[in-house]
Specification:
Largest sheet: 8 strands, mixed
Shape: globular
Radius of gyration: 20 Å
Number of helices: 11
Strand order of the largest sheet: 2-3-7-4-6-5-9-10
Structural class: alpha/beta
Number of strands: 14
Order of helices and strands: EHEEHEHHEHEHEHEEEHEHEEHEH
Helix content: 25-40%
């Protein structure tokens, strides 16, 4: 990997390297710097969530709009409770069922959480990540970390250290390489200040699972994905976008796909195709990739495939529409925003 002359990319694949990377990352974070760290969802740009000047560096580095709040990452329930004013029974149930993991809970913010983190709002999104490196760094720092995805605003989220380096390597001093993200899309966000609670951003923890954890009768249509106020990242209409034009289509067979491209005036040779069920076998496409027809495996592969298409110079990426099923809603949400 190459980047700015001062960029460090630290591996973690042995216990000694892991421990050294934890020490170095914690040192940078305690000094008010921004570092790129692995989580199980996507790689994050982390800074001390209690330090407004450090958080401001995240916004500047990403080119992030000031009205887009940042999720606070914690290690343990005590740290989570210290970030909020109220901890309802619903939070206890969801934390017991899904933490550590890819679920963010939106709750009334504590006074210690700076305005910049919440975009001036009265709520904060809190998550206890599952990735062992992120947990160890938070523990070493002793403070929560504000950590949006480690990419330029609205662009593709990174799922490995090389994705981060390509987008932000000339702006960062430290990237920790924790391997490929094993979830692959951003966390589910649930607003627990709403009654009943609602999903602000779908993810791989889906509504039916959340409803089951909260108690019987919660899966009866009261769950909704509404925009509301910006209490969560991932609600802007265009987000998670590759450089290439992205189309999300359904097609019956290869003839149908070629006909749809023709009607849109897209040459077949300019189309990079990501399919899971109806895979075109004829030649002439820019590229054809098969993504697993399993929601969890698909989520792990999606952003990496879109990065690969961009790296290859694709002008148009055609993604086969995912199934209309609960476990696919987070993926469908990301594709819809990427194609906006």
């Amino acid at each position: 990997m190459s980047g700015s002359p001062s960029l460090e990319v630290l591996p973690t694949h042995t216990p000694a390297l892991f421990a050294a990377a934890v020490r170095r990352a914690a040192e940078c974070l305690r000094a008010g710097e921004v570092t790129a760290l692995p989580t199980e969802t996507v790689y994050g740009l982390a800074a001390n969530a209690l330090d407004p000047q450090a958080v401001a560096k995240i916004y500047a580095l990403k080119g992030r709009p000031a009205h887009n709040p940042i999720i606070v990452h914690v290690d343990g329930l005590d740290m989570a409770r210290a970030c909020v004013r109220a901890w309802p029974e619903s939070a206890t149930r969801l934390a017991a069922a899904f933490w550590p993991g890819p679920l963010t809970l939106v709750l009334p913010r504590a006074a210690a959480i700076p305005d910049l983190v919440t975009a001036g709002g009265d709520t904060v999104g809190v998550r206890w990540p599952q990735h062992p490196f992120m947990r160890e760094v938070i523990r070493a720092c002793g403070f929560p970390l504000a950590a949006p995805s480690a990419n330029l605003s609205n662009q593709l989220s990174p799922t490995n250290a090389e994705h981060v380096r390509k987008q932000l390597g000339d702006r960062l001093r430290l990237i920790v390489d924790g391997g490929d993200a094993n979830v692959g899309i951003e966390s589910t966000v649930v607003d627990l200040t709403a009654n009943p609670p609602r999903v602000l951003r779908p993810g791989m923890v889906h509504e039916e699972s959340l409803a089951a954890a909260l108690g019987e009768g919660m899966g009866d249509g009261r769950w909704e994905m509404g925009p509301g106020a910006l209490r969560s990242p991932g609600q802007l209409p265009k987000h998670y976008s590759p450089k290439a034009r992205l189309l999300v289509w359904a097609w019956q067979d290869e003839t149908d796909l070629r006909a749809q491209l023709g009607r849109l005036g897209v040459p077949v040779g300019k189309a990079w195709v990501l399919a899971h069920s109806h895979v075109p076998l004829g030649g002439g496409f820019g590229s054809v990739s098969v993504i697993p027809h399993d929601a969890e495996a698909y989520a792990r592969a999606l952003y990496a495939e879109l990065h690969r298409c961009d790296d290859a110079g694709a002008q148009c990426i055609v993604v086969e529409a995912p199934p209309d099923a609960p476990e696919w809603r987070g993926i469908a949400d990301r594709l819809r925003r990427a194609a906006a």
